[in-house]
Amino acid sequence: MPPNVAKKGSAGRTKPTQAKTEARTLKRKREQDDLSKLKKAIDELDPKSPDLKNFTDLPLCEATASGLRSSHFEVLTDVQRSAIPLALKGKDILGAAKTGSGKTLAFLVPVLEALYRAQWTEYDGLGALIISPTRELAVQIFEVLRKIGRKHSFSAGLVIGGKNLREEAERLGRMNILVCTPGRMLQHLDQTAGFDVDNLQILVLDEADRIMDMGFQSAVDALVEHLPKTRQTLLFSATQSKRVSDLARLSLKDPEYVSVHEEATSATPSNLQQHYIVTPLVEKLDTLWGFLRTNLKSKIIVFLSSGKQVRFVFESFKRMQPGIPLLHLHGRQKQVARMEITSRFTSAKYACLFATDVVARGVDFPAVDWVIQADCPEDADTYIHRVGRTARYESKGRAVLFLDPHEEEPFLKRLEQKKVPIQKVNVKEGKKKSITNELQSMCFKSPDLKYLGQKAFISYTRSVFLQKDKEVFKFKNLDLDAYAASLGLPGTPQVKFHKGEDVKRLKNASRAVFSSGSEGESDDEGRKPKKPEVRTKYDKMTERQNQDVLSSHYRKLLGDEDDEDEEDFMSVKRVLGDDDLDNAAGVSTEPKVVTLGKSELIIDSKRREKLLSSKKKLSKYMDKGTKLVFDDDGNAHPIYELQNEDDFKKEGPAEQIRREFVEAEASKVRDADVEDKEHAKQRRKEKRDKQKAREREELAQQMGAGVPQLEAGDGATAEDALALLRSLPIAGEGDRSSSDEEAEPPKKKAKKWFQDDSEEEERKSKKQKKSGKKVIEMDHEPDNLEDLEALAAGLLED
């Protein structure tokens, strides 16, 4: 090949490569130009400008703007208008806004923009960490992040409890954005090797006041220790407070406090109608049942104070069938069940969800009509978060609070301090219905439901006893006997209380474990917890509380009601027997020895003595012996007897013995084969003879029970022939022989309702022709010899 041709071909191959390189260079240059313009626009942005009304007015990259348009987010809410510009400038934010005001986008948009401006890639590690107090809220944040971030190339992950820890650890290293719960994230930071968070750019805490409660405080403290100091921090909640200790612990630097409802007349949305009903504790379930029966075409959330109450109310109402789909959700459910129930309630048009505070914060259920608080919330902030599940994003909603008479005045003062408007309403007398009898009947028939009712009673009374606000929650004012009867229980369970414990710390600590899936958390002094020890079933039984709820009458019968001496706990007492008395008297007691054949059995316990009365059990210890066979002379031999080696050699060579044995056995087989063939041949012959005899009998029956032929030499006289011919069948009368009279006549088919006599006659004639019988028609009955000869000639024609 000439040199110039080779050069030409080489140049032809390099042209596409050079074009691609130039295109990538131009694209990179355009991206850098857009990035520089974006940074310049952010520097020139005025966070307090009144012109910021839509997302298009903000300096956002094209990927984020496109994702917002695709998700139909256009107009900025108040909290978004105040927080996003400050966050784009890199400020730390401490934000407070009403429920349903759009706080999720207020921190997700700055997260995407911060990583975009930093040109973050999967090789840079974790860039943004978003912490949520509950799994349901974390899942919701992650879904919104997927919608608005669909045009970005960042990788995002969801880290919550209830999933495989190892599978999560394998993917953590490749994630740029993580949405997590505090306990689960702390578990990965402590246990997952190679998980690096040194490059973290931005930290977000949604529902910050809830995260920084006593139940999450130690987890957040330990988690922040792993994070770098140089980062941007965003905190959002519906009820935020300026606490210096919180700001110092989270390392906020000159934070901007964003509050869009401080000057508002209400801490709740203006389109939310709030009411309360004064109902005694014993009538609470009656009122709730009547409300559900009246609002069947609604979407309702009913908040209760504990998961045990949620289970009992759900199971009892489900059996009573109010006419509306029922669901229940609490922190002790498995993660898969919680996700399924959340999805079902989100997509349902009409449904009622019984839930604890696990869904009280941040979770967005669309088109919720009513929020019912059957149990009084622990404080006003919890009330605000609960009612925030309805009237979201300028839609309308209604909320009802059930209050005991002694809870009314003090709790209304708490709401008034939080600028919460609420009005009192009364239940119509016609809508009231007592369901106590139905509950008692169900608890009587179902022990499981009664057990749930007992647990619900204990959990409610214990929570009231441990509440800190004693002005609202007065345990002494509760009528426990009437409350137990209203739950359908036959008696009032006994409850043991432990004074001096903080109910909020206990409640939140329990929820932190079950919501985040954390194995352990640091204590208040920052020390790492010990690895939890494996507890057996018996350890759990001894530690279980309230296990003697229904056993007080048993203790009274035993007379140890007031005996609580710890020395007698699990003590073993033994009744002295005869052997013990003999030993005490100095009498020696030696075990018995029983002879069983050639073996001996030592009777050294009562269990062995029982063997003597049972032949079946005693046979196990007896000598079974050996099985014997008898020869022709009557001598006994073992069934398998080994021949002496010398005697075996005297019989001849082994090969010759084997050959003779084989020939003898083969001869036996051949003789047996001949006998078998003869026996089979004989059986076949007997079978054929029986078949022929059966055929002859059938033929004789068909031919008139074997009528003899009139032939010469029979010696039949005229009178015999006359008697014989008279027995022959006559037309229309069938066979009337004596043999037929003795035999049982055949069964006739039932005549159809539309069949006439002519058809019956025709059917009979066809049946006779088919059977082979010959019928001769005569004008009159034969009464002389000529008539009989004519009849016989007709029969003998064939």
From TrEMBL:
InterPro entries: DEAD/DEAH_box_helicase_dom, Helicase_ATP-bd, Helicase_C-like, P-loop_NTPase, RNA-helicase_DEAD-box_CS, SPB4-like_CTE. It is an enzyme of class 3 (hydrolase). Pfam families: CTE_SPB4, DEAD, Helicase_C. Residues 21-41, 525-545, 661-679, 688-699, 733-747, 774-783 have a biased composition (Basic and acidic residues). Its EC number is 3.6.4.13. The keyword Hydrolase applies. Coiled coil: none annotated. Residues 1-41, 511-545, 661-798 are annotated as: Disordered. One of its GO terms (cellular component) is nucleolus. Residues 284-439 form the Helicase C-terminal domain. Keywords: ATP-binding, Helicase, Hydrolase, Nucleotide-binding, Nucleus, Ribosome biogenesis, RNA-binding, rRNA processing. PROSITE patterns: DEAD_ATP_HELICASE, HELICASE_ATP_BIND_1, HELICASE_CTER. GO terms for molecular function: ATP binding; hydrolase activity; RNA binding; RNA helicase activity. Residues 84-258 form the Helicase ATP-binding domain. Its main location: nucleus. GO terms for biological process: rRNA processing. It is found in: Nucleus, Nucleolus. Transmembrane segments: none annotated. RNA helicase. This is ATP-dependent RNA helicase. The lineage of its organism: Eukaryota, Fungi, Dikarya, Ascomycota, Pezizomycotina.
